[in-house]
Amino acid sequence: MNTAARQHQRLGPVVVGTDGSEHAATAVLWAAHEAAIRGRPLTVVHGAGSRHARSWTTESPTTAVDEGRVVLDRAAAAVSERFPEVAVDTVLSRADPGESLLEASGPQDTLVVGSRGHGGFSSLLLGSVGLHVCARSHGPVVVVRELPEPATGVVAVAVRDDGDRGALRFAARTAQARGASLRVVSAWMFLEAAGSMAAVVDDVGAVARSEIEATKRTVAPVREEFPDVSVVEDVVRSRSVAGSLVEVSPAADLLVMGARRPARSVGAPLGRVTHAVLHHARCPVAVIPRE
Questions:
Q1: CB-based burial of residue 87 (10 Å sphere; 0-12 exposed, 13-18 middle, 19+ buried)?
Q2: Which DSSP letter does residue 240 get?
Q3: What is the pTM of this model?
Q4: Hey, what's the torsion of the CAs at 269, 257, 141, 137, to 10 degrees?
Q5: Checking CA distances to 194, which of 12, 48, 160, 226 falls within 20 to 30 Å?
Q6: Is the pLDDT of residue 52 over 80?
Q7: Where are the domains of the chain?
Q8: Sheet with 231-237: strands ordered across
Q9: How far apart are the C-alpha atoms of 285 and 140, rounded to whole Å?
């Protein structure tokens, strides 16, 4: 795709999951705000497949579906009250919440989930829906954790190499839509105890300069594509990449990172850095499939 075509790409519609919990309500309103900024529609999804799974022994599936409709109606009403300009659609599915979200969305849509819930859209610390969706979605997934108050006006993105260009472009488009600045964070690790490698890697300054130049090369095409977005490159030496990203998160309205999915791992898990950031970040985190 050439630069002109990329410039005319827009952020797609927003799809958000809800189970009626307080954390899900926060995610729904965050997603509605994002849809309003983008000028795109919002789809609110409730997967009734597991929310009442344990109670179906004494409660009919019909009752669970009826309760799901109530959850969706309340979410849609909250969106319409706060963001009347946003077109809202609702989807009630009998599938599990994770599968419901994946089925309701396409590669250009952004999926949004809360960090905790009643059990349907539950905490990522419990390994449930958020991890399932982040690991399998073909499009961006945003996990809404803590919200910076007040807003920082900054979108941060983690960049290591050219494979993160998709995450970088998503972050740039988001910053452009929000009128925010873009902070590119490239955390690199230096072998502290080099041993016999000391003669090869003894120039930390040279390594640092190499990392800075590599980041500039990765970011340059995106600077050209989004000339109206203020971009700051932050190349830092780190003992922990995940730790450095978590440290950045309180100063950002959104932290964007590429999904690193080990090719041979069972269950399509995410990489350990992504796991750690999702568990500990202090702002919403967007996970983008790596190119």
A1: middle
A2: -
A3: 0.85
A4: -40
A5: 160
A6: no
A7: 3-144, 154-289
A8: 88-93, 42-47, 14-17, 110-114, 141-144, 285-289, 254-259, 154-158, 181-188, 231-237
A9: 10
C-alpha to C-alpha distances, 239 to 22, 190, 249, 275, nearest whole angstrom? 36, 8, 17, 17
Mean pLDDT, range 99-109, rounded to an integer = 90
- Whether the CB-CB separation of 259 and 161 falls below 8 Å is answered with no
Does residue 202 or residue 88 have the better pLDDT?
88
Which residues lie across from 236 on neighbouring strands? 187
pLDDT at 32 over 50: yes
Domain 154-289 CATH superfamily: HUPs (3.40.50.620)
Element (H, E) at 175: helix 165-178
Q: What are phi and psi of 30, to 5 degrees?
A: -65, -45
3-144, what's its fold? Answer: Rossmann fold (3.40.50)
Residue 127, pLDDT above cutoff 50: no
Q: In whole angstroms, give the CA distance from residue 241 to residue 169.
A: 21
